[in-house]
User: Fold this.
Amino acid sequence: MDKAGNYLLDLVPVKPEEGVKKLQVAVNRDSFQIVKSSSSILWKRDDPLFLGLELNRDLPDRLFTFKPPTGVEVMDMGKQKK
Assistant:
């Protein structure tokens, strides 16, 4: 967790890409929204902060298709008990 109490996820590429070491994502522990990301590449570091996000913009469900890879366990965080 970071100082604000957000979950921190370190995403490391399975196959190394052009100098990309990892991507770190901070996720709000209550809403599960991404609040910050940080990428480490060989020559610099980038830390964008997500501000002014707009949720539930009435986009049709047909715009999104989620197909997890075979063998991946999917957890529906909306159904988790708090």
Notes: The chain has no helices and four strands. Residues 37 and 48 are 6 Å apart (CA to CA). The chain has a mean pLDDT of 80. The longest strand covers residues 20-27.
